[in-house]
Amino acid sequence: MNSARPGRLRLGDRVRFQKHIYTVVGLTGMQVRLADAHGVGMLVDQVHLQSAEDFAVLGAGDRTALGSAALLDRLPGPVAERALWWQRHLVELLTGLPPDASAGARVRSEYDPVCRSLAERERAKAAELAALGEEVTARTVKRKRLQYEAGGVAAVVDRRLAPHASLLGRADPRVVAAIRQAIGESVPASTRTIEYARWRTERILEAEYGQGVAEMPSRATFYRLFDKLSHGVHVTGSARTRRSPGDQPGGPFRYEQVAAPGELMQIDSTPLDVLVRLEEGVPGRVELTGLVDVATRTIAAALLPIPARAPSPPRCTARPSPSPGPRRPACTARSVHHSVSPRRDPKRRH
């Protein structure tokens, strides 16, 4: 069995499998389609292929960039350059040579797919980038490599710096605010049509900004905006269905600001439907108690015996005292004394 992990197979790679030479002509999930020199093809599971004893990658295929780079045209310059920078290093990690390598370039020993495992190449790349002043670890390199293999150069873009498409497109914020106001007014009112909502939105814009200042969108655009903004409100549906969620109170939970460990602890218990032998040697039930430290997200759990319930104390009520004086409590739970009454003689006369 070949101990070296060759990395990810790509279209055009030449491989040796079961004493024959094949070319990778298709990749579908974890299955690889191979074709020999005569064009005869076969479909093999990638795990079965790479675990064969004589498996080896004899030549790399076309090292064109993975994925589409069309997203880079819409990104700021530094963000696109950073993605291409990652692509160059990841291609070298996977194939042994960067995408801009010249013809006849030799693979560096630390990135040789035949002699080095994938984990070794990731550690070598992390050490190389750290020497260049980058704060990169082997775990970061592995994460970037998985993203690149899944989606190409577009997957390694820093999404925090990429432009995000708005759910409402390029709609005028003034129109969006007016539509939201019209939707809010319709919750306690009777059911209206979407045309009424459009008319009401136009009146709100005129009252707020003046006539003709905030331009109303076309009818089709307004319908699309109204459908997105009124999702779940049932503006044009049943009044009962619309008012029911509108009358619901706010949630009882809120986010607590915690600054130090142990400042806020959350604990909860649940009984387990099992019977165990306690320390005293008597059987009993236990409950699972969990505790979470909100500041550090530390979780602790324990099995604790369920304490036996103590007998309820007798209930006392106020009864009038037979003698003059303040009221005094008298217990209603009293013991009952059973006594045997003497038998009555039927012949005895009173």
Number of strands: 12
How many DSSP H or I helices?
A: 8
| End-to-end C-alpha gap | 117 Å
Fraction of residues in β-strands: 15-25%
Low-confidence region ranges: 1-6, 62-69, 316-342
Shape estimate:
extended
Label the structural class. Answer: alpha+beta
H and E order = EEEEHEHHHHHHHEEEEEEE
- Spatial order of the strands forming the largest sheet: 4-3-2-1-5
| Helicity level | 25-40%
Q: Give the C-alpha Rg.
A: 39 Å
Give a description of the structure.
29% of the residues lie in helices and 18% in strands. The protein is of the alpha+beta class and 350 residues long. Strands 4-3-2-1-5 form a five-stranded antiparallel β-sheet. α2 packs across α4 (138-151), α3 packs across α4 (138-151) and α5 crosses α6. Residues 1-6, 62-69 and 316-342 have low confidence and may be disordered.
Comma- or semicolon-separated keywords:
single chain; 350 residues; alpha+beta; 5-stranded antiparallel β-sheet; 3-stranded antiparallel β-sheet; extended
Task: Please specify the SSE layout and strand pairing.
Blueprint: E1 14-17, E2 20-28, E3 31-35, E4 41-45, H1 46-50, E5 56-59, H2 77-95, H3 118-131, H4 138-151, H5 173-186, H6 194-209, H7 219-229, H8 239-246, E6 265-271, E7 276-277, E8 283-284, E9 286-293, E10 298-305, E11 316-319, E12 328-331
Antiparallel strand pairs: 1-2, 1-5, 2-3, 3-4, 6-9, 7-8, 9-10, 11-12
Helix pairs in contact: 2-4, 3-4, 5-6
